[in-house]
Amino acid sequence: MSANPHDHAAEEAHSGPIKNPKQLLVAVFFSFVVPIFAIIGLVYYVVSANKPAGANSGESMLLGGMTESDQKKAVAERIQKVGFVEIRDANRELKSGEEVFKAQCTACHTAGVAGAPKFGDAAAWAPRIKNPFETLLNSALHGKGAMGAQGGGDFEDLEIARAVVYMANAGGGKFPEPAKPGAAAAPAEGASAAVASAAPAEAASAPAAAASK
């Protein structure tokens, strides 16, 4: 006589889906190992998204998102002295007044903002060009009113002076453009050298002329 089919079905229902040790190992793998890899991948993704480009992930985590070179640069900037000397090329070609104007002055003087006399506006420049050029240059170099000091920046004082002349003359002024200090001295030095070289020749020709008489 065969076993009761109802009892056999009840036994299968209580036994569960795992039938052998192999199925148990597979279930354990998917229950524990796969989630662990998923967590590791998520952490790596978060760290990679927040680190600086090109930085090593471990280095980035240890230095708070900064590379070692970035940290050294930041420290050097904090401990550097307040004042420093900038060495410029003394032989570079000086800019013209128009070039300096376009680079440094046009923001205010082209539109005439912040009380600046508008470029080419004779009425705005009339009371200013009545002053000596030195007064205009001093105001430009050291600042006046809303205009900050223009000296000590990217351009030499002579270049700022050329820009002042360029603007003032566009407004009706007649100021000569400042020349480089060595430029005026060069022709004079050449002339004095020519005179000095001519003197011995004249002295040598004098006895010859006397002897011929």
From TrEMBL:
Transmembrane segments: 24-47
Domain Cytochrome c: residue ranges: 92-171
Keyword RNA-binding listed: no
Signal sequence annotation: none
InterPro entries named in the record: Cyt_c-like_dom, Cyt_c-like_dom_sf, Cyt_CIE
GO molecular function, one term: electron transfer activity
Keyword set, alphabetical order: Electron transport, Heme, Iron, Membrane, Metal-binding, Transmembrane, Transmembrane helix, Transport
Pfam families cross-referenced by the UniProt entry: Cytochrome_CBB3 (PF13442)
Keyword Membrane: yes
Database matches in PANTHER family: CYTOCHROME C5, PTHR40942
Protein name (record): Cytochrome c5 family protein
Upper lineage: Bacteria, Pseudomonadati, Pseudomonadota, Betaproteobacteria, Burkholderiales
